[in-house]
Amino acid sequence: MSAGLHATSYNQSPPGTAEPPGTPASHSAVSRQPQLGTLVMLFQSAIRVTYDICVDPAASPAPTLLQRGASYCIFTPRSQAIRVLFLTGNYPSYLDALCNTHPGLLNLKNLDCWNIYLEQVQALLMCPYTRQFLTLGGILWRLVLQFSPPSLLNHALAGPSSDIMIWGIGDIANGQCDDSVAAVDSATLIDVSEAGSFWLPHDIWDASCRWKEFWSDTDEQWFQSHLQNLSSRNVGASKTHKDWKCFFRPISAAKSSDTSIYGSEAFARELFGQLGFSTALVPTWDLSVDR
């Protein structure tokens, strides 16, 4: 068993050769360029990483998780990532929180609504820091795959973007750093307004009974169907927060801690322990360890 995987305390929770189910063909190839740092993941992902390393000891865990739509974080030592801090106070406008606003389109009766949404999302995904969306997994990961250039996959694996390396804007704490996305960025991606949203919020997706941490064929079928409804201006495609919760029922607190439910985080945590790892703390992987 590789010595690289273990459980440790961390300030922030994360929240192959054969293509995983549901992976869009146009984004199936990802760079194997390694990123140094500490990989933080869920127990479900740790099980997957453990298996992959047993099959191929030279495998790198981050590309596999990225390709499958899992959520994870890679925190890079600040000394390795931050080259120049605060060259000037004149940050690019997209890094100025005061300039970041989201109007909330939602009205599909407006014939230009969908095109405006696409323009806003594609403009957002030109910002280097939005590589972070791809590590959040789930619906945000899939939306970024749909609307961003394929090169963003490699940016997600290459380490902190220029926004944090040059401008020092991102998640920096305790000698570690990573890019970060703001709530307004997520709102732009799913088009949130007071009346609802085009896409279900990430927290509802993440807590849903149907989400098992890796993107599936069933997830992809739903995504393509909903995408078609939105692009054809189906006025019933957008939904309120309450309606989204009805369609994607959140798993109950009792079930979320039930170790007998196959595929759940609780099940994965118990299995991870049976494999000989500590389950008291968040699973991590030291990407600087040679295996």
Brief write-up:
This protein is α+β, with helices and mostly antiparallel strands and 291 residues long. It has 14 helices and eight strands. About 8% of the residues have low confidence.
Describe the structure.
- It contains 14 helices and 8 strands.
- It is α+β, with helices and mostly antiparallel strands.
- It has one domain.
- The strands form 2 sheets. It has a 6-stranded antiparallel beta sheet.
- A hairpin with a 2-residue loop joins strand 4 and strand 5.
- Helix 1 crosses helix 14.
Given as residue ranges, the uncertain stretches (5+ residues, pLDDT < 50) are: 7-21, 25-33
- In round numbers, the mean pLDDT is 79
Secondary structure tally, helices:
14
Largest beta-sheet characterization = 6 strands, antiparallel
Our estimate of the beta-strand percent is 5-15%
Strand order of the largest sheet: 1-8-2-3-5-4
Assembly type: single chain
What's the β-strand tally?
Answer: 8
- Helical content stands at 25-40%
- The backbone outline, from C-alpha atoms, is globular
How far apart the termini lie comes to 10 Å
Region (Disordered): 1-29
Please describe the topology of this protein:
Elements: E1 5-8, E2 38-41, H1 43-55, H2 61-68, E3 72-77, H3 78-81, H4 113-124, H5 133-136, H6 138-147, H7 151-157, H8 162-165, E4 171-173, E5 176-178, H9 183-190, E6 192-193, E7 196-197, H10 202-207, H11 217-231, H12 241-247, H13 253-256, H14 265-274, E8 282-286
Antiparallel strand pairs: 1-8, 2-3, 2-8, 3-5, 4-5, 6-7
Helix pairs in contact: 1-14
Region (Disordered): 1-29
